[in-house]
Amino acid sequence: MSNQFWQNKTLAEMSQDEWESLCDRCGRCCLHKLEDEDTGEVFYTNVACKLLDIDKCRCTDYRRRQALVNDCMVLSASDINTFHWLPSTCAYRLIHESKPLFTWHPLISGESNSVHSANISVKGRSLPESAVATNKLQEHIIHWIK
Q1: Do 105 and 120 touch, CB atoms closer than 8 A?
Q2: 58-59 and 127-128 as β-strands: parallel, antiparallel, unpaired?
Q3: What order do you get walking across the sheet with 127-128 strand by strand?
Q4: 3 state SS of 22
Q5: Sign (positive/negative) of CA torsion 32, 93, 27, 126?
């Protein structure tokens, strides 16, 4: 990968390896979200998808995730106009909005754990899906993700 490719390419121009490297492994996109039907506002909960390893902030079956979780959103450049639901710190959203990556992003810091050190990830702050009833998700809305 070229150095700082994300500054010179659009999301649609990126190779699969470049695309995948944009993910900082924060796990925020793997949290259950609720959307206000009237306003379209998205609210994050602290409840993680059943496939998220909440200690490592990684999907336990990344290749088959969409087959195993019917509402799993697989990001692609063709969907960039729907990225509003991603957290404001997400590299995919930042690049789409022509904003720089944060200094804690692994592509900038050179450290894979910098997202955890910066307290951006869900590590230590989320619950497994099995611990919360679906009808109780509203009680788990969090405000530390924007």
Answers
A1: no
A2: unpaired
A3: 31-35, 42-48, 127-128
A4: coil
A5: negative
Name the DSSP class of 132: S
For residue 102, give the DSSP letter.
P
Reported as a single tens digit per residue, the pLDDT across 20-69 is 999 999 999 999 999 999 998 999 999 999 999 999 999 999 999 999 99
pTM for the model stands at 0.90
pLDDT value at position 94?
94
What b/e readout covers 83-95, taking b as 16+ CB neighbours within 10 angstroms?
beebbebbbbbbb
Q: Are 67 and 59 in contact (CB under 8 A)?
A: no
Distance CA 6, CA 55 (A): 28
Angstrom distances, CA of residue 30 to CA of 58, 110, 128? 9, 23, 11
| Cα 128 from Cα 22, distance rounded (Å) | 25
End-to-end CA distance of the chain: 30
Strands 52-53 and 58-59: antiparallel
